[in-house]
Amino acid sequence: MTQWQQGSSIELTIASLSDRGDGVGRWGDRVVFVPDTVTGDRVRVRLVRVKKQYAHGQIQSVLKPSEYRIRPRCLVADKCGGCQWQHVEDVYQRQAKVQIVLEALERIGGFTELPIASPLFAATHPLHYRNKATYPLGLSQQQTVQAGYYRRGSHQIVNLNQCPVQDERLDCLLADIKLDIAAQQWTIYNERQHMGQLRHLSLRIGRRTGEVLVTLISRNSNLPDLLTQAQQWQAKYPELVGVCVNINPKPGNIIFGDRTHCIVGRDYLEEEFAGLTLQLRSETFFQVNTEVAEALLAVIAQRLELQGTETLLDAYCGIGTFTLPLAQRVKTAIGVERQSSAITQARANAQLNHITNAEFHCAAVEDWLTPEQPCPDIVLLDPPRKGCDRTVISALLSLLPPQILYISCKPATLARDLKLLCADGQYQLVYVQPADFFPQTPHVECAAFLQRRTE
User: Mind listing the pLDDT tens digit for each residue in 410-431?
Assistant: First the structure.
């Protein structure tokens, strides 16, 4: 009889997909999480991490493939950790993401009546959608320069010359720049020894403009002949508007350091978004799926039923990606963001687009939301994956703005925070719009609309 222990092989059927991308099956009354599977697969699995009621398994063979299983369109999909769902049929990916949102809102949020839109917003093309890619650099055993994503659960680079989810116009740069780095004999960073120079290669493109920005992330600025090489790149690629070097001397897995120097051209590219022109720098946070972000913004503007008389507070506003388009539909838009560089860019983008009714403040959201601040008509929350600080939730429940729009990239923290906001009956969850910003992965974005109860 098969034992419930590490190393045992078991057979099971995958019943669903988790928010981490793993297939979920049951063996008796125990749960087994299995990467690289899809709902409906009958698989043989080796147990690799075993607890009393659940385990993580490693697929040994597919005994009967699911109707939702397809051949991955990437040659290294079974190795690369950049995508988890290359083997999952596109339509079913979207269905699974809606289910992930539903389960989080029900299980974590405690919501029973869910006004959730289905199907979710999705890109027209589920490949070649990313407008930015940042690749760690490394050396092979033969000491050739590598760039790619890490294998799942490791820091071993899967070398890439092209990537099917990034904008295909960046592929030629990825392959050629690796060769030029090797020819220049610039040293590659070794994270264990904290030696070497180049750490990452960042490529960014304006989907609408075609402008490209290349950034080398280096431990120091000691890169001989960098100016000459940058000039050669700019001459070779007409769409390349700038080459930058970002300095990050600190150990750890944070990609960008505090200083970025422009070597040739400009330190930003221009992108057209929602009818505006935005300047995006190397380290700027901007949604990687331009088209789906625009579609979500259109629904947000429609659902808020803006009359042009409102005051909108955009908490965690970044460079004003949503603040500035919405400012054109309200009386006053206020953006709050703790990163000073983002606020500088937001103000510059407002000026570039002649938007005069938007103001931006560098502050932590929890510090800005005080009883002394006038209550806005609408609060837009777009926090990082960890969600809102409890002090932000408390401040909102004191201010009680008529509408709260919560944009989230993690359904679990969204559900947790919505539960807190709705706990005392002051707010009602009236609509949830999922959006697929990241095809081929389990990540799903959501916009949740809350209305203050008036009765």
Answer: 999 999 999 999 999 999 999 9
Over residues 135-143, mean pLDDT: 92
Query: How far is the C-alpha of 131 from the C-alpha of 22, rounded, in Å?
Result: 26
Instruction: Give the list of residues 6+ apart from residue 193 with CB closer than 8 angstroms, or none.
Output: none
> In angstroms, how far is the first alpha carbon of the chain from the final one?
62
- Choose among 450, 440, 319, 328: nearest CA to 378: 450
The encoded tokens of residue 298 equal: 């259109």
53 to 47, 319, 374: CA distances (angstroms) = 13, 45, 51
In a domain, residue 77? The reply is no
**How far is the C-alpha of 146 from the C-alpha of 149, rounded, in Å?**
10
**CATH number, position 373:** 3.40.50.150
Block residue for tokens 């027209």:
124
Examine the domain organization and report whether 112 and 52 are in the same domain. Answer: no
Beta partners for 332? 311
Same domain for 385 and 341: yes
* Predicted TM-score of the model (pTM): 0.93
- Report pLDDT for 373: 84
Contacts 24+ apart (CB under 8 A), 151-159: 151/79, 151/80, 151/81, 152/35, 152/81, 152/84, 153/81, 154/81, 155/191, 158/76, 158/79, 158/80, 158/81
- Residue 451 CB: number of other CB atoms within 10 A? 13
CB 43 within 8 A of CB 33: no
In this structure, which amino acid lies at residue 118? Answer: S
Residue 148, CA distances (Å) to 144, 189, 342 in order: 13, 14, 28
Question: What is the Cα–Cα distance from 332 to 311, expressed in whole angstroms?
Answer: 5
pLDDT at 242: 98
Residue 424 to residue 350: CA distance in whole angstroms: 38
Q: Same structural domain for residues 298 and 269?
A: no
The residues carrying an active-site annotation are 409
d(CA 288, CA 205): 10
Burial call 190-224: b when 16+ CB within 10 Å, e when fewer: eeeeeebbbbbbbbbbbbeeebbbbbbbbbeeebe
How many domains does the structure of the chain reveal? 3
Chain-centre distance for alpha carbon 21: 15
Q: How far apart are CA 15 and CA 455, in angstroms?
A: 43
Phi/psi of residue 108, nearest 5 degrees: -90, -40
3-class SS of residue 335: strand
Q: What percent of the chain has pLDDT over 90?
A: 88
Percent of the chain scoring above 70 in pLDDT: 99
Helix (H, G, I), strand (E, B) or coil at 416: helix
Q: Which domain holds residue 39?
A: 9-64
